[in-house]
Amino acid sequence: MDFWLYVLVVLVGFVAGFINTIAGSGSLLTLPLLIFLGLPPNVANGTNRIGVLLQSLVAVGRFKQKKVFEWKEGIWLTIPAVVGSFIGAAFAVNLDDQLMNKIIGGLLVFMFFLMLYKPDRWIKKQEKVVHAKPSIVQIVIFFGIGFYGGFIQAGVGFFLLAGLVLGAGYDLLKANALKVLIVFAFTLVAMVVFIYNNQVDYKLGLILAIGSMLGAWVATHVAIKRGSEFIRWFVLAAVFVFAVKLLFF
Predict the structure, then answer these.
(1) How many domains does the chain have?
(2) Angle at which helices 27-36 and 3-22 pack, to 10 degrees?
């Protein structure tokens, strides 16, 4: 592969790592790139998880260093997401890309208008923040999000943010920190499935991860400095752009 293609992978990884850390759907940039470089869709899906895993590790470390969250705040929501991720990854061998794109696009449109409605709910901490065991409804929600994340990954950050803000009552800054913690945990489990099925290109995945980790590091700095209001507008813009891409292109 030509040198400039390696540079392109790092640059796209940087952008995806930044977007994934503050919002979500960076995989909608990296997956097409990996397929363009010649990987079969299922191998691209597995290879992409290396970048997601390592960028999440960087973001978790930075958010924890700045005391944005505590470990106990996310553990009970992480468990059902991890279980769902393992099952979702096991189903990820045969993907109907067209149908999946329409489903994700439709959900993102719904989320866009949801974020415009009562914006204070996305910015201010609510009263029902989860510190103990979550409810059955929350377990089901995060199991479903984990299943989807294990299955395809793209767009899962948006749905995690919605679950953490509307379902658990966190503001967007803390929700972002817990989001990357959950993503790290269920991506680690999903990686085992893809590795077992020989669906990972380690060389491309690690090159992608270089850019992804740098993007995540920059994104955590921006998120902490700018706060929940900035994150909300960034997420709105990202949701709109990716919804249009999935539905019409």
Answers:
(1) 1
(2) 160
